[in-house]
Amino acid sequence: MSRRGAFDWGVETFATIASTDNEPLQIANPRFLGQSEATLKAAYQSRDTKKKFSRGWRLANKRVAQLHSKIARQRLDLHHKQSAQMVAGASAIFTEKLQPANMTRRPKPKQDETTGQDLPNGAAAKAGLNKAILDSAPAQFLGILRYKAAEAGVVYAEAPTRSLKPSQRCHACGAVVKKPLRERWHVCPCGASCGRDVNSALVLLAWGLEHVLSVFFAWLWLRNNRSQELAAYRGVQNFPLEP
User: Fold this and answer.
1) Does the pLDDT of residue 24 top 50, yes or no?
2) Cα dihedral value 204, 205, 206, 212, nearest 10
3) What is the Cα–Cα distance from 106 to 216, expressed in whole angstroms?
4) What are the C-alpha distances in Å from 111 to residues 106, 116, 123, 125?
5) Angle formed at CA 200 by CA 133 and CA 190, multiple of 5 degrees
6) CA angle 161-81-38, nearest 5°?
7) DSSP designation for 170
8) DSSP state of 229
9) With contact defined as beta carbons under 8 Å apart, do 207 and 7 qualify?
10) Domain residue limits, the chain
11) Which residues on neighbouring strands pair with residue 73, listed in sequence order?
12) 212 vs 202: CA distance, rounded Å
């Protein structure tokens, strides 16, 4: 990512990057847990056929732990490498504020008001989505990206998701165009048409550029007025930005 850029984290693609210099770039999601799911299932089945705490069970349980450890190392390696690439050559990085705990929350049960019977609440589909979210580990990735940006002196800011609505807002005209999660293409009455994730990244980039300019002008005003508060604006990074 060069100069100033923004990215939209996702499940189908690991990240979609938009910058001031290049065309939007999509980074594939390797889905390490998904790749090893069949092997993990076989390892669990092998362990469960053995008497618990027997020698064979302990060896099989060790194999399960080794597979999980390998997946965790693969994921961590990806996060370190990808965050380093994003920070390299960047002056500012923007994304949205994610709440993984809320994103993976189970749907509330639904009941028929007259019969009291349970109704479908999409729990099965949500379980698959939750697994994909946890497989990507967004909290770990953003944490690594934050400290790498801080070490490099790169501005890092997270947009308020609820007020900005990057996945629903049009990057071209700013209008909110509501669409379900399954709809992966953004189409706006203004004529804008692009991938949903690309649109989100462009919205985040525009938000970030707007806030960076406001901080720069505040810094310039303080410098011209020789305020003692100028020190608070030197080397601005990881600054909180709320609307």
Assistant:
1) yes
2) 110
3) 42
4) 16, 5, 14, 18
5) 145
6) 85
7) -
8) G
9) no
10) 3-233
11) none
12) 15
Of 154, 159, 156, the closest CA to residue 171 belongs to 159
Report the pLDDT averaged over residues 103-129.
70
Which residue in the block uniquely carries the two structure tokens 């669990």? 44
Alpha-carbon gap, residue 213 to 205, rounded angstroms: 12
- Give the pLDDT band of residue 105 (cuts 50, 70, 90): confident
Measured distance CA(68)–CA(5) in Å, rounded = 33
Place of tokens 């399960």: 64
3-state secondary structure of 167: coil
Unique residue bearing structure tokens 């649109």: 199
* The pLDDT value given to residue 217: 61
Chain-wide mean pLDDT for the chain?
A: 84
Phi and psi of 68, rounded to 5°? -65, -40
| 22 vs 192: which has the higher pLDDT | 192
Instruction: Look up tokens 């406001």; give the residue.
Output: 214
Q: Which amino acid makes up residue 101?
A: A
Nearest to 30 by CA among 19, 15, 45: 15
Evaluate if residue 191 carries a pLDDT over 60: yes
Rounded Cα distance, 67 and 73, in Å: 10
What is the phi/psi pair of residue 151, to 5°?
Answer: -65, -35
Distance CA 184, CA 167 (A): 10
- What's residue 121's pLDDT? 64
Lowest average pLDDT, out of 69-73, 115-119, 137-141, 232-236, goes to: 232-236
SS3 assignment, position 22: coil
